[in-house]
Amino acid sequence: MTGTILYGAPAPGLVEVPAGATQVSPLIPGSQDLAAMADASVERAVVLAPGGVLERDHVLAHALRVLKPGAPLLAFAPKDKGGGRLKKALEAFGASVGEDARRHHRFSHTVRPQAPTGLAEAVAAGAPRLSPGLGAWTQPGVFSWDRVDPGSARLIQLLPALSGRGADLGCGLGLLAQRALASPAVTALIGIDIDRRAVECARRNLDDPRVALAWADVRQVPAGGDLDFVVMNPPFHDGGVEDRTLGVAFVTKAAAMLRRGGACWLVANRHLPYEQTLSTAFGSFAVRDDAQGYKVIEARR
User: Do the strands 72-78 and 98-102 form a parallel or antiparallel pair, or are they unpaired?
Assistant: First the structure.
C-alpha cells in the first residue's frame, strides 16, 4: 500500500505535498511507473496534469485506477495549459469535482468514485503503440510522438556515415539513432533521454546489440571524453517554456563526452544562438545546412 503519489514537479508553494510522497512522473528519472502500480493501492494522488489530451486522460485514469475508492485526488494545471478542462475530464470518469484557482492555475478536487467509468478506454488511448506512419513504437506525451520532428528529419537526411562509439543525447524514440546505426562502422551507441516512456519505446525500436539506453538527465550524465561522435536535436523547452540553457547544456555535455577530434552533429532552430557555446566548447564548427528554419551543425572537438 502506498500513501501519496505525486505526478510532476509543481512549483514550490503551489500545493501541499506530504513528505515521502512517491513520484510517478516519467520525466523524473528514478520515479516509479504509475502504470505498473496495483489497483486501489494508493491513499492519495496529487497530479500536475500534462497538457496533451490523450496523455492527460491517460494519467488521470491511471491515478483514479490506483486510488482506493473514496481516496482524494487533486489535479491541477496552468490555466493556459489545460487547467480549465480538468473538471470536465474528471467528470467524464464519473467523479464529482470542486474547483478553485490561484497563481494562474486551476485546481480540481475530487475523490475516486466507487465505480469510475471510462478508465480502461483512456488508459488504452494513451498507451504505447506501434505507429504505422512512423514505423516505430511511440506513446502520447513523448516528444514528437505522432510525427517525425522536422529538425530531426533534416539531420537524419544529412547525417554522414559515422564510425566508432557514439551517443544520441535526448534520443527520444530512437529515430536519429536508427540513422546513425545504419553505418556498420558504428561499434556502439548509447541513447539517453529524460523521458522513461521514450526510452522504453526506443528499446523496442532499436533492436541492435550495439545499443545501450539510459533513462537519465543528460546534464547529470558523467562525461568520459572518449566517444567518437555525438548526434542530437537538443531540447529548448522545459515544462512548455522556452529555456535556451537546456540546449547550451547539451552542447557543453557533448563536447565533454567526445575525444579529441570527435564529431558532434546537431540540429537546432535557426533562432537559437548556440554559436558562442560551440566556439568555447569545440575546436571548430561549421553550419552544414541552413534551410526550412533549421540549421545542421558539425562541430569538432
Answer: unpaired
53 membership: H or E segment, kind and range? helix 53-66
> Could you tell me what percent of the chain has a pLDDT over 70?
98
Please name the helix (run of DSSP H) or strand (run of DSSP E) that holds residue 2, with its range, or none: strand 2-7
223 with 190: CB under 8 angstroms? no
Is pLDDT at 243 greater than 80 in this prediction? no
pLDDT at 65 over 80: yes
Amino acid at the residue 211: V
Q: What is the largest CA-CA distance in the chain?
A: 63
Evaluate whether 237 touches 270 at the Cβ level (below 8 Å): no
Q: Which band of pLDDT confidence, cut at 50, 70 and 90, is reported for residue 240?
A: low
Measured distance CA(224)–CA(166) in Å, rounded: 12
Question: Is the fold of 2-125 the same as that of 129-300?
Answer: yes
Per domain, the residue ranges of the chain are 2-125, 129-300
**CATH fit for domain 129-300, picks 3.40.50.150, 3.90.190.20, 3.60.15.10, 3.30.360.10:** 3.40.50.150
Q: What is the dihedral of CA 178, 160, 231, 263, to 10 degrees?
A: 150
Q: With the C-alpha atoms ordered 30, 33, 38, 41, is the resulting torsion angle positive or negative?
A: positive
Distance CA 196, CA 216 (A): 8
**Whether 118 contacts 90, CB under 8 Å:** no
Give the pTM: 0.95
89-125 pLDDT, tens digit each: 999 999 999 999 999 999 999 999 999 999 999 999 9
Q: What is the pLDDT of residue 59?
A: 98
Vertex 142, ends 136 and 146: CA angle to 5°?
50
CATH class of the domain defined by 2-125: alpha beta
199 pLDDT higher than 80: yes
